[in-house]
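S.,

As promised, the zinc ion run. Input:
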Amino acid sequence: MDERQLRVDLAAAFRCFAKLGMHEAVANHFSAAVSPDGRKFLMNPKWVHFSRIRASDLLLLDADDGEELAGRKDIDATAWAIHGQIHRRAPHIRVAMHLHPVHATAIACLKDPEIKPIEQNTARYFNRLAFDNEFGGMADTAAEGARLVATLGDKSRLMMGNHGVMVTSSSIGEAFDDMYTLERACQILSIAYATGQPLKVLSPEVAEKTARDWEGIVDFSIAHFEEMKRVLDKEDAIDPGGRGTVPAPGPSSTRPPRGGDQRDPPAFA
Ligand SMILES: [Zn+2]
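Predicted complex:
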């Protein structure tokens, strides 16, 4: 996928999560690798609301750049610490999304942060989560980012204790659907816990089969994301405020003023 399409899709993912209420003020961050070796990647600029991020706003960074990048005023130091290390140390990860969605974060803050398999959404994560229990304040150093990558290990999702969650994937669509389902699974589990009644946990065999079934329908995840992009387009066609065009990425690109020329859909560009 070329850089332009990655920009459009990543911007769409930000806007989808804003609509779903899964963003955290102007914090949280996603990245998508652009180069074949995974070291050049796109990331959202510091403290721009997810609902306003456009394709042309995304920063093109190099994981080999040093810690001095953390001092750039358009880069969130925490985002650089985490995503810079992911793309430097784990080239197989093409997309990484970090959020603090309410329900997933609530489960991550329990003494037992496992997502018990009690139905289809929760079972997607059976034996498929890594857990970080070393929260020590906001991660803003390369060492902290490196530690998180090591903790993730061979898993693709990280429950970050006392903090939030991280989802990694090979495409933006898969990562989007995975994050969506992770939050929904934790919402279901939270409500089940809140009843105070004992959980009826699925057998390991059924949970494992369900998790594998999920892994066999990657096209479902892609379809979900593509449909959500169409929903965004439709909604923004009704209320097109704040849209702009998609300048070609690169050093020579110029950014039109927000709310300027609206000829060039999609809205999240
Ligand atoms: Zn965070």
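The pocket of zinc ion is lined by residues 98, 100, 163-164 (CB under 6 Å). DSSP finds eight helices and seven strands in the chain.

- D.
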